[in-house]
Structures are given as structure tokens and as C-alpha cells.
Amino acid sequence: MLRGSRDFETREEYEKFLGRLFSQLNAGRQKRLQEEIAEFKPLARCRLDDCQEKMVGVGPASTIRILHNTYSVNSRLIGEMVKVRVYVQHLQVWYGQKHIDTLPRLKGEGGHRINYRHIIDWLLKKPGAFEEYRYREDLYPSTIFRVTYDVLKKDNPNTANKKYLQILYLTAQESEVGVQRALELLLNERQSINVDALRELLETENKIEAIPDIQMPEIDLEVYDRFLQAQGVL
Prior knowledge:
Strand content: 5-15%
Distance between the termini: 76 Å
Strand order of the largest sheet: 1-4-5-6
Number of helices: 8
Radius of gyration: 30 Å
Mean pLDDT: 88
Helix content: 40-55%
Structural class: alpha+beta
Low-confidence stretches: none
């Protein structure tokens, strides 16, 4: 309402807008503020908690429930209890005394944020579960991955789940951007999509050409002396 638009390019731009707005609103309140400051009591000499702490169990699908939202964690934590520190913008997951992950916090209720890197090991052990996996849409990092799964499903429905999970496992090990480029190439050329073909393309892309050995001739400084003498400088 004040700005005429809610479209901010970044969070930082929004925070700067609020800072300017607060400065304007508080400009005429300095006298009253000083009166209030004179009555302030000393702060306690200890840090105030800026987060909530919750102990939750990791379910068999490698997920936790926090404030009515679902998040994935590393599959190695299945069956374990973890401590989650809930901040305004993110969550910190702690196991024992070790901070093991930071997750963006979801707003509202009933949402979910599933990271395929957390659960790919678990899914590979039971590829048949992928077909009916509740959060399957979260396991397509981009449209190219979704198209890849559809092509695999069309070409060979019986092995599509296993092949796609193998591709996702390779993506977790390598580069998501690199695997996506390789998938685009195979799709555009209508070639067979499999892990071996992707790995070959990735190896080709990652090869670094040998840096040529450039031989620099030794510089004869007497040339400069003769030039300067000819110019009458020396």
C-alpha cells in the first residue's frame, strides 16, 4: 500500500525498504524515545533464545514433522531422535552434539520439502516404492528430470523406476547441472537413457585439455641499451 507494489527483487531490497520506512516513522519520536530509554533496566547478562528447540523422531521414510510441515533428513538417521532448532527462516538439525544440516523453513502448514540427496540411498533399496511415493514430485530436480522419467516409463515400464533412481543417485554423486545437460543431449538426440551413457558424457565434459608448454625465449636486455643509445638517451 505504501510502495504501490509488493514486488521486491530480493529479500535484502525488502529489508532496506523497511529500514527507510522505520527511519521516517521514528524521526518525530526521538524525544519520547529518550524518555523511555532513561527508564530502561539493565539487560540480563545471558543470551536470549532466538529459536525453538524440538526433539523429534526420524520416520521410516527419512522424514521429520516440524510445526505441521514435513522435511527430509539423511536416511542414515531413520529411527533416530534428532534435535531441531526452529528459527524464523531456517531449521538446524542436530544429532548428538553435531550440527548435521540446515533446512529452509516452510511457511504455513501441510507443506513438505524433500531433498532427493537425503533419501536416494533408501529408495534404491526399494525401487518399487517410488511409483507410489507420496512426495514423488519433489524428486524431479527440474523439468528435464520429469521428462526423463516419462520417457523411461514409456520405453520400458518395468525398469523405469530403477533406472530413474540410478540416474538420481548419479546426480547426487556428481553435478546436478552436469547430469541435466547430459540428459538434454540424450533426449534431443533420441538416444537410450541410462547411467552408463550419462557417466560417459560427464567424463567427456570433465576432461581438461593439457595446458600447452609455452617456451618463452630469453630476453636480451642489450637490445634496449642499443635502442636507447641510438635515441641519444644514454
